[in-house]
Amino acid sequence: MPEELNKDAMKTPASSEKPKAAERPAVAVAAVNIPLVNEVQLAAATGGTELSCYRCTVPFGVVVLIAGIVVTAVAYSFNSHGSTISYFGLVLLSAGLVLLASSAVCWKVRLERKKERRRESQTALVTNRRGIFT
To answer: What is the C-alpha to C-alpha distance for residues 25 and 59, in angstroms, rounded to an integer?
Structure first.
C-alpha cells in the first residue's frame, strides 16, 4: 500500500496549471540610458575620497605582496618550478609590487599638486599686497 502512494505522488497531474507558451504575456524590453558622471559629481558622491587612492592601495599592496612572498616561497621550497602555484605566487608578488608602486606615484603627484597650489596662492597674496602699498 505505501508503494502505491509513492507511485501516485510521482505522477504528474492530468490538468497542468502552467500557462503554455502561447498564453504567456509578452515581455517588454526597455533600453536604459545610463548618464555619464563627471568629476564634480563623483567627488560629491564619494565625499572626495577618490583623491586618496594611495591610502587604500598601500595596505592592499602590502597584504598582496606578503601573500605573494609566502606562496612563492612555498612553491619553490617544494621544487615546483613552472607549476600553477609558482605562477600564482609570482602573479601575487608582481601585483603587490604594482599596487605599492602606483600608490607611491599617486602620493608623489598629490604632493606636487599641493606644492603648486601653495605657490599659486602665495603669488596671489604677494601681488595683492604690492597693489595695496602702491
So the answer is: 53
Is the pLDDT at 23 greater than 70? The verdict is no
**Average pLDDT rounded to a whole number, residues 75-100:** 89
Contacts of 73 (CB under 8 A, 6+ apart): 89
What residues contact residue 97 under an 8 Å CB cut-off, 6+ apart? 61, 65
Residue 27 has pLDDT above 60, yes or no: yes
- The pTM of this model reads 0.52
DSSP 2-20: HHHHHHHHHSPPSS--SPP
Q: How far apart are CA 66 and CA 4, in angstroms?
A: 64
108 pLDDT exceeds 70?
yes
DSSP secondary structure string for all residues of 56-116: HHHHHHHHHHHHHHHHHHHHHHTT-TTSHHHHHHHHHHHHHHHHHHHHHHHHHHHHHHHHH
Candidates 132, 116, 68; CA nearest to 94 is 68
